[in-house]
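Milestone 3.1: sequence recovery, worked example.
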């Protein structure tokens, strides 16, 4: 443990060799190090049999492969949290299934979206602009932004395939306060609406073919409009699993179709 965790250089060497064998020159270039700084660390890894040498190339040993395979998820999770420690320390993540909570590091590289006070009640530009470039979107909501019904309708009208998952409270609000929009949205063949039978406390989860957008409640159970967006493939897969979890708790609902839109 000391060999790995007490040296950033040794840790980086192990992670680099996970990608494949390297000679000393390629290791130096990849890690931007000198022979003088890197060779003592390589010798220690050789002594502990975490790596092996074959000619001029260095490999992970079997034990090294096992260890790196297990420490990488932890390192990824630490990186995700360290980028915005205060944000994650004040998030309520209890809504996440345990397996996804344990794999939070798969969110990868992300941006923290914090709107200006004068734009607090607008849909985030980063969300709108990227969804409008998408061909399909799956989204779960427990919180109904006042602009979201008309935005969903705009997306459906542009031919974006939508799978909408809602808690009972969100569904009732949409169906009572935005009747016209709901009737129009449900008339499109490429729109599916699902009612979740559990009150999952996630304001919004949205995933398309190329980005994911996530909103969490804070530790006080409130939505403070601080969201994250990620374009990493691992984040898309993680969010897709979260949507599938919501799907497993939901049933599809069929709303009356508006006559004027029956041909959509």
């Amino acid at each position: 443990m000391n060999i790995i965790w007490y040296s950033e250089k040794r840790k980086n060497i192990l992670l680099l060799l996970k990608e494949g064998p390297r000679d000393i020159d390629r290791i130096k270039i990849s890690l931007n190090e000198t022979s003088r700084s890197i060779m003592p660390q390589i010798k220690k890894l050789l002594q502990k049999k975490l790596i092996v040498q074959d000619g001029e190339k260095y490999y992970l040993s079997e034990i090294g492969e096992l260890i790196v395979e297990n420490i990488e998820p932890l390192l990824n999770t630490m990186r995700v949290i360290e980028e915005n420690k205060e944000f994650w320390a004040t998030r309520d993540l209890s809504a996440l299934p345990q397996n996804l909570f344990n794999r939070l590091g798969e969110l990868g590289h992300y941006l923290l979206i914090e709107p200006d006070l004068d734009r607090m009640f607008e849909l985030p530009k980063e969300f709108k602009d990227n969804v409008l470039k998408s061909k399909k979107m799956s989204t779960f909501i427990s919180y109904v932004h006042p602009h979201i019904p008309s935005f969903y309708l705009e997306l459906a009208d542009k031919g974006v395939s939508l799978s909408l998952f809602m808690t009972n409270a969100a569904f009732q609000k949409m169906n009572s306060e935005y009747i016209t929009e709901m009737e129009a949205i449900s008339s499109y063949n490429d729109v599916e609406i699902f009612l979740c039978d559990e009150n999952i406390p996630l304001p919004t989860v949205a995933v398309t073919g190329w980005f994911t957008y996530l909103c969490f409640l804070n530790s006080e159970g409130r939505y403070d409009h601080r969201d994250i967006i990620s374009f990493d493939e691992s984040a898309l897969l993680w969010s897709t699993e979260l949507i599938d979890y919501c799907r497993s708790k939901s049933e599809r609902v069929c709303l009356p179709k508006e006559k004027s839109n029956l041909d959509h």
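The CA atoms of residues 89 and 219 lie 8 Å apart. The first strand starts at residue 22 and ends at 23.
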